[in-house]
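User: Structure with 5-O-phosphono-D-xylulose, tokens only please.
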Amino acid sequence: MVLIAPSVLSADFGNLAEAVGEVSPAADWLHVDVMDGHFVPNLTIGPPVVASLRRHSGLFFDCHLMMEDPGSYLGAFAEAGANGCTVHVEVGRSAELLAEARRLGLQAGLALNPETPLDTVLPYLEACDLLLVMTVHPGFGGQRFMAEVLPKLAEARKAVDERGLAVRIEVDGGIDEHTAGLVARAGADVLVAGSAIFGRERPWEAAQAIRRAAEGALATKGAS
Ligand SMILES: O=C(CO)[C@@H](O)[C@H](O)COP(=O)(O)O
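Assistant:
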């Protein structure tokens, strides 16, 4: 089953609760992009905004911490109502951060950038609930999908399945109704999309189109 996670990065920040409410019937999770201006050259939102949104939404909040020091904030995100927090393998201390996330009752995610080899996350798979394979360089919405990441995504799926793990594999960046089938076939089961949902006139329908494209590709894969 494929989960669709609209990314709030492309939503109207002045009207966030309404934007989230509008897309919710077609969303499984809400992807919350947290950027610190250091790990990535952009600044977005933090725990107070998550806490405010929590009062308006019952969705699973999937917080992607693009931060150099996520460990200092995991507790604040848990307190604010996050359900899952994903940290980047590139910042180090992965074992410690994943264990801390789980200790706080969060689903623990580990992300890797497009140029980061899969080997860097393999030692931590058992400590993860989610592996986030970035399909753009993190920091901004609306970038081009990097098809060169597809072999790494397929390798990640193979590693998770060979170990018999229930780790979800999420993709983020450039996902739309054209790329959804590619990533679903390569093994992704959580699809994050920002501009292809919130950037469209009818976000709810756009999310459904992405879901249909992913499920259609999986059905064809099953039949072939
Ligand atoms: O983490 C990020 C960007 O760093 C994302 O979650 C973006 O929000 C995805 O945006 P689109 O590529 O779907 O427009």
